Amino acid sequence: MDNTSTSPAKKAPAPLLPLTDRVQEALAITKRGVDELLIESEFAQKLARSEQSGVPLRVKLGLDPTAPDLHLGHTVVLNKMRQLQDLGHQVIFLIGDFTSMIGDPSGRNVTRPPLTKEQVEDNAMTYFKQASLVLDAGKTEIRYNSEWCDPLGARGMIQLASRYTVARMMERDDFSKRFKSGTPIAVHEFLYPLMQGYDSVALKADLELGGTDQKFNLLVGRELQKDYGQEQQCVLTMPLLEGLDGVDKMSKSKNNYIGITEPGNTMFAKLMSISDVMMWRYFELLSFRSLAELAQLKAEIEGGRNPRDAKVALAQEIVARFHSKQAADDALADFVNRSKGGIPDDVPELTLAGAPAAIAQLLKQSGLCASVSEATRMVDQGGVRVDGTVVSDKALKIEAGTFVLQVGKRKFARVTLTA
């Protein structure tokens, strides 16, 4: 009698699909400017299957509406979403209205205070509107993760928590550092990556995008999908864009940012201020120009063409995206006018009293300088003009009248000073 036990035969892996020229091109576009694509071979097969079946991939980006305003640094991931959207895939803009009330601990060394429901709703109102300046809103699936997180209830949350170990959570860099330093870690913070991962299960995501600081959370999504019997998503992380200083990441707190709702002239001038070296980083992460176009442009600059021409092209592309082609043309004309010492058209106007007024006090009252001491310093540096004439006397008194104050290259105010 044969006592050899039998077990179900393992399912043979599906044969690899050929990577056509179109798939190879889509893969190159996807990889442009990315920090990591995990796992690239898996994603190539997803692309090939999508091409063969005609079924678009489901591409997920989850954003917690922690603040209502976006800057260009935020759009790096949105740009990648738009590229994938243009390749014909279904992009899902997931608003983390549930997870934002937990608070994402990524990259933090202290517990992050969760937002209230009212704060989340207020921020979410403007979030997608701003994101739609990059994405094709008509082809974007908008979801809120409260759709499937709220119904879980206490029982469902406990069952979800049973699928991941504390040891795995402590592999996360910020958690391990906080634990070793004795910095408190609240239990609810462990729920954040779990809930983000569960989003991928609920949406059956093929690819999830995020910044480099989101890598752990994105990989949790892969693991949970496997645990739920789904095909695992691939993970794409984008680098953090440096700000105007070319050193620190773009941030409002560091005042090195370009807001996507700023006036076109301001955006243009700020983009023109970046270095010739940093310009290529901005092209790679922010421009929608093809790789072939960028290679040609770079060759022309290396061949002797003025880098300023490339920077103008970048600035016009960005301003046109967030405003209009006419606004981009106007911004260029305004920038050229300013560079020749001219006064821009869109100068804010205000009326002040107290003539005659000290120049330093006037600069502070007009909002061009934060303090009298800063105003005095700007005069010393030759950075203050009245109607185009440089002011060198710190004790100058300005009589009643209407005139244009200028600080540096970009700050102007048309002031009517009365007695």
Report on this model:
GO terms for molecular function: ATP binding; RNA binding; tyrosine-tRNA ligase activity. Catalyzes the attachment of tyrosine to tRNA(Tyr) in a two-step reaction: tyrosine is first activated by ATP to form Tyr-AMP and then transferred to the acceptor end of tRNA(Tyr). This is Tyrosine--tRNA ligase. Its main location: cytoplasm. Keywords: Aminoacyl-tRNA synthetase, ATP-binding, Cytoplasm, Ligase, Nucleotide-binding, Protein biosynthesis, RNA-binding. By secondary structure, this protein is of the alpha/beta class. It folds into three domains: 218 residues, Rossmann fold (3-Layer(aba) Sandwich), CATH 3.40.50; 76 residues, Tyrosyl-Transfer RNA Synthetase, CATH 1.10.240; 70 residues, Structural Genomics Hypothetical 15.5 Kd Protein In mrcA-pckA Intergenic Region, Chain A (Roll). Helices cover 45% and strands 14% of the residues. It has 17 helices and 13 strands. The strands form three sheets. Strands 1-6-5-2-3-4 form a six-stranded mixed sheet, sandwiched between helices. A five-stranded mixed sheet has the order 7-13-12-9-10. A two-stranded antiparallel sheet has the order 8-11. Strand 9 and strand 10 form a beta hairpin. The protein is globular, with a radius of gyration of 27 Å. 34% of the residues are buried.
